[in-house]
UniProtKB/TrEMBL annotation:
Family matches, as InterPro entries: Intradiol_dOase_C (IPR000627), Intradiol_dOase_core (IPR015889), Intradiol_RC_Dioxygenase (IPR050770)
Keywords, alphabetical: Dioxygenase, Oxidoreductase, Signal
Annotated CDD domains: intradiol_dioxygenase
Domain Intradiol ring-cleavage dioxygenases residues, every copy: 62-176
Annotated protein name in UniProt: Intradiol ring-cleavage dioxygenase
Higher taxonomy: Bacteria, Pseudomonadati, Bacteroidota, Flavobacteriia, Flavobacteriales
Family: Belongs to the intradiol ring-cleavage dioxygenase family.
A GO molecular function held by the record: oxidoreductase activity, acting on single donors with incorporation of molecular oxygen, incorporation of two atoms of oxygen
Signal peptide range: 1-21
SUPFAM superfamilies: Aromatic compound dioxygenase
Keyword Repressor: no
Length: 400
C-alpha cells in the first residue's frame, strides 16, 4: 500500500494521467478474477485509436519534438525465452520531455491521461519491434524514475496485460526506487542500458511473454530448475577469484565486465571434474577467440566439506594444469551464501551444472546439465552469435 500512497501524493495532473494498472490494491485481485495478468485499470485504453494495420516499427508523436531521441528495440519471445513470438501487439505510453502526460486537443478524452506520446507496434515474423520516440522525463518534483509504460496483447491470449515499465539504469532515481519497490520482472526486467549511435540513444528491450504474469494460460514444462529466468537481469555477486583475471579479489563479474557477453558456469555438489576440465578448455578458447566481447567465469559452489584455503588451492592447481589465462576460476562457500550474494542467482546445488549467458547485464540464455560434447560446444557458441543483436559494438555513455 505504500506505493499507492506515494502515487496519491503526486500532483493532481499526474494522478489523472498515471497508469493505475500497476498499483498494489489491484494486484490483490489476481487470484480472485482469474484474468491474465490480474487485470489493470487503464489497460483497455490500448484499443482506443489503435490502427487497423500495425507495423513492427512505430514513430511516436514525440519524435520530432524537444527531447533526447531514443530508439527502443528488441525481440518478444514465448515463455521459454528463446522462441520468437510474431504478431504480438505492444502498446506504449510515456511522459514528454517535461515529465507530463501532455494531452492534445484532438486526443480522445478517454485516453488523455496517457498523454499524446503513445503508440503501437506489432512484432514481425522474427518477434522484433522498434519504437522511435524521445526519452521520457521523470514526473516533476517526484521520486519516481522516468519510465515508459507497456501493455501487450498476444494473438492467442484473451486478455491484454502490462509488463514491467521500461526504466533506465543511468537514472539516479532508479536505485532508491528499487530498494523500496523491487522489480516484479513481469515479462522480464524492464531496466535498459543506453547505447550511443551518433546523436541517438538506443535501448534494447526484450520481452518474455507470460514470465511472472499471474494467471498466464501457457505453461512451460521444466525438467530441471536452476538459475534465474531468461529475460531477468544477472545479479551482482562477489565470488572469491582463485585463478585467472582478478585473482586474489572478490570482483563482481557483471559489475566489471557487464557490457558485452558473459558466461557464468556454475557447478555444485555433483561435480564431475573430468567434465569440468573439458568445459573449461572449450570456454577458455572461446574467450580467447572473442576477446573483449566475452568474459567467462567458473563458479564452484559445493557445500560439502567446505574449506576456503583447500578450495583456493584446488582451483589454483586446476588453473595451472589447464594453463588458464582468460577464464576466471572462482568459488563460493555454497550457492545459498549471503555474504558473497551468490544466493541471488538461485542456483540448484544438485544440478550437474548451470550455464548462464548474459549480454549487457541481462540474461539472454541458460542451460542446465550440459555434457561437454562437440554438439553442446557448438550450441553455446551459436547462442553467443545469435544473441549479439544489431548494436553489439556500440559504446555506452560516459557515466560520472
Amino acid at each position: 500500500m505504500k506505493k499507492w500512497i506515494i502515487i496519491k501524493l503526486i500532483s493532481l495532473l499526474l494522478l489523472s494521467v498515471s497508469c493505475n494498472g500497476q498499483q498494489p490494491n489491484e494486484k490483490l485481485s489476481d487470484k480472485k478474477n482469474g484474468i491474465v495478468g490480474g487485470g489493470c485499470d487503464g489497460c483497455e485504453l490500448m484499443y482506443i485509436g489503435m490502427p487497423e494495420k500495425i507495423q513492427s516499427t512505430n514513430t511516436s508523436p514525440g519524435w520530432n519534438e524537444k527531447g533526447q531521441k531514443l530508439i527502443v528495440t528488441g525481440t518478444v519471445f514465448q515463455i521459454d525465452g528463446k522462441t520468437p513470438a510474431p504478431d504480438v501487439i505492444i502498446y506504449y505510453w510515456q511522459t514528454d520531455d517535461d515529465g507530463y502526460y501532455s494531452p492534445k486537443p484532438e486526443l480522445d478524452n478517454r485516453v488523455k491521461r496517457h498523454g499524446y506520446i503513445r503508440g503501437w507496434v506489432k512484432t514481425d515474423e522474427k518477434g522484433k519491434y522498434t519504437i522511435r520516440t524521445i526519452r521520457p522525463s521523470p514526473y516533476p518534483n517526484d521520486i519516481l524514475p522516468a519510465h515508459i509504460h507497456l501493455s501487450v496483447k498476444e494473438p492467442d491470449v484473451a486478455h491484454e496485460y502490462y509488463t514491467d515499465e521500461i526504466n533506465f539504469d543511468d537514472d539516479k532515481l532508479l536505485i532508491p526506487h528499487f530498494k523500496k519497490y523491487p522489480q516484479e520482472n513481469r515479462g522480464g526486467s524492464g531496466v535498459v542500458r543506453i547505447l550511443l549511435k551518433d546523436n541517438l540513444q538506443i535501448a534494447e528491450h526484450n520481452i518474455v511473454l507470460g514470465l511472472n504474469i499471474p494467471n498466464y494460460p501457457k505453461k512451460l514444462t521444466v525438467v530441471s530448475k536452476s538459475g534465474l529466468n531468461v529475460g531477468e537481469d544477472q545479479p551482482s555477486f562477489i565470488p572469491f577469484h582463485a585463478y585467472g583475471p582478478d585473482r586474489g579479489t572478490q570482483t563482481c563479474p557483471v559489475c566489471k565486465y557487464g557490457r558485452y557477453h558473459g558466461i557464468i558456469y556454475f557447478v555444485g555438489n555433483n561435480t564431475n571434474w573430468n567434465e569440468v576440465k573439458n568445459w573449461l578448455q572449450f570456454l577458455e578458447q572461446e574467450s580467447k577467440n572473442r576477446k573483449k566481447y566475452l568474459k567467462v567465469y567458473f563458479v564452484y559452489g559445493s557445500d560439502k566439506d567446505y574449506n576456503k584455503y583447500q578450495r583456493l588451492s584446488q582451483l589454483e592447481k586446476l588453473g595451472s594444469h589447464l594453463d588458464i589465462q582468460s577464464t576466471a576460476l572462482t568459488f563460493v562457500p555454497s550457492f545459498v551464501d549471503e555474504k558473497t550474494e551468490v544466493y541471488l542467482n538461485k542456483i540448484n546445488p544438485e544440478a550437474e551444472n548451470t550455464f548462464v549467458i548474459y549480454k549487457h547485464r541481462n540474461i539472454v540464455d541458460k542451460y542446465i546439465n550440459l555434457k561437454p560434447t562437440k554438439e553442446n560446444f557448438k550450441m553455446l557458441s551459436n547462442a553467443l552469435d545469435k544473441t549479439q543483436g544489431d548494436f553489439f559494438d556500440l559504446s555506452e555513455p560516459d557515466y560520472e
